[in-house]
Amino acid sequence: MGRKASGRHKSSGKKDKQPRQGQASGTSFVGASFERSQVLGSGTQTTKINVQAYAAVPTALNSLPGLPQEFTGRDDELAKILSMLGPGSGTGAAVGSIAGLPGVGKTTLAHAVGHAALDKGWFTGVQLVNLRGYDPTPVPPEDALEALLRALGVAAEHIPPTLNEREGLYRSQLEALAREEQRFLILADNASTSEQVRPLLPARHHAVLVTSRHALPGLGARLFNLHSLQPDAAVDLLRQRLEVADPDDRRVEDEPTAADELAALCGYLPLALQIAAALLADDPDQPLSERVRMLADAGTRLGGLDDGERNLRAVFDECLTRLSHQEADLYRLLGLHPGPDISTPAAAALTGQPADKITPLLRQLVRARLLTQNSEARDRWSMHDLLRVHAQEQARYSMDSGRAPRRRFEQAQTRLTDYYVRHAHAADTHLQPPGEAVSTLFAGREQALAWFDAERENLLASIHAHARTRTASTLGFTLGRYLEWRRRLQDLMTVRAYALDACQILGDASNLAGAWNNFGSALRGFRRDAEALEAHQTALDLFQRTGDTHGQARAWNNLGNALGRLKRNAEALEAHQTALDLFQQTGDTHGQARAWNNLGSELGALKRYTESHGVYQTALDLFRQTGDTHSQAGAWSNLGTALGELKRHTEAHDAYQTALDLFQQTGDTHGQAGALNNLGNALGKLKRHTEAHDACQTALDLFQQTGDTHSQAVAWNNLGTACRGLERRAEAIAAGERAVAMLSQEEDWARTGEAWAELATTLNAFGAEPSRVQEAWEQSATAYTRAGDDEAAATSRANIEGTPPGT
Q: Is the pTM of this model over 0.70?
């Protein structure tokens, strides 16, 4: 901050309210006296200092540096802070505090606020004082006051020596400026404690804006928490930084995907982005993708964010020096946690301490901006991506420092893993069919599902961190029911693959067959039916070798599902019959019910609808015996399908409504969507088109919530049919076109043929060009042929010639 020399000047006796450029008319201070005491030997000497009224002296109006050209992405934050600083914002002094982790751009934002406030004419000037609160020797408040007094025009020889005297003089100066209708904004940058800032607060009229890594209590300041940039703004910062160095640098535009990845690897943190941009500017031939590869490894990421002048690791290291031993130890232990956030009970398990002992330490890390507390789930805590990388480094350094620290950290890691395995198993017991023992760790299914929802990413991260170990195998088996329930099919595929890999590596013959069976079911979820068939066959072979009758029954059931998907319905029927026989041998009523249910599906596919209806009724009766409400809902849904094929549409409607009610009882969103979809079809058959449309639209919305793209496509098809019934031409055609596009992308050729046939019917009903109708029938026939359904293909081709409009 620049200083202006000042001395005594004679007053002209006139008040000049329009200061010259670079100066403000102000009075240094008005008749005051201060007493200063010194202890001398055994007595105290008091010196009275009389201060005279001095004339106007030069005042530094503005000590703000210019903003960097690439300042971006802070419009919302800027507006919020400015709303506090306006002249009409209150009678007292306006005090605000910008808090955030190191490198998030607090200082630059404060400068931007200062420039914007000056542009609005709200302040005569802005004074910046850097308190260096996180340096080894922070600026004491008396030194900060000296700098501000000099900037306000007080000569060095007139600045009293003690903090209290300087504070009084400073407020007198500001009061005098206020009487002259001058208003100043004080930017107190890099404060680490409230004590550094409190003496700088004016009594009224003026404003103070503080930046700190901490939320400074006791200042009465309005707190503005500053977070990382949004992804688009982070990429924009990279682009602008590179263009400042070289206006012809087009690397961000040429490699947009790499630019997005680089911004993400920098955690959208302005300081990290600036360092990465500086390194790229120094190497103008380096592609962004190469820089991305250098930063992709978490073990070397922080080392790659060092441009020789700025070192992100050093900034984070310095943060640790300000923590207590317990706080720093907790920070390092948190580096062992593999997931994106941690609950208080998990942190307690990690540290081996009770939750009430660990919570105050977690809050201290929040105050130091090294941790964030979830605003909605108050018992959850997270770290910025780059801080997590730093904490992981710190954990490794601690483990490498000696045998005792390594053993201590390994024990902590074991406690955390055991916590997740134990609670996952306990939660899974609440998703099993009724009749099985349930854990008392959770009050019921809803609480178990809520725990799984909160911990899903951490559980997946734990499996990844413990790949090829017993933990990966155990969690891979345990998470299956939950992930199926929530339709997290990609996650399901991942955990099943990890479990299979771990069983093979460990030579775990007792679980290997089950792992193959589960993997096959996950493959079916992605319609990889041929691979699924092979997986289930492998599982069956292994179960037969070990003589596991119940396992064989499950494998035959899944084998039948895969065969049915491949349109090998006669073989599928035999497989399900074999599964039923084996389930009857083992006395597994629930397994028998599932086998009956699958038998009904295959009989329906073979157009043996009367038999199918009877089989579904048997499945329903058995599910009732077991008390499995969720499976009863599925059986009712299947029963409705059979009734629909028998043209018993009123009974089908009632069956689907019952299924919907039961799915709602169990909280199965995906099941509700399927039941609504079927209900919409039944309502359409009953000519209740408005209700059909509403049911199909709700089904579509729910399928979108669960992320089931394939079922969304089916729902679009049904919605198009409902719109046709309502004579809503444009919507009916648009929905049909959406359905055929999505189903083609899913490569479900049987349903694609069905959707094209439905679209052809819609086009014809609304009098479309015959060539367009014929093209739709041709597409339907082609899709059916690809699905191997020659009979359906022939039916579609029969419609190609001479279809009169409006029929």
A: yes
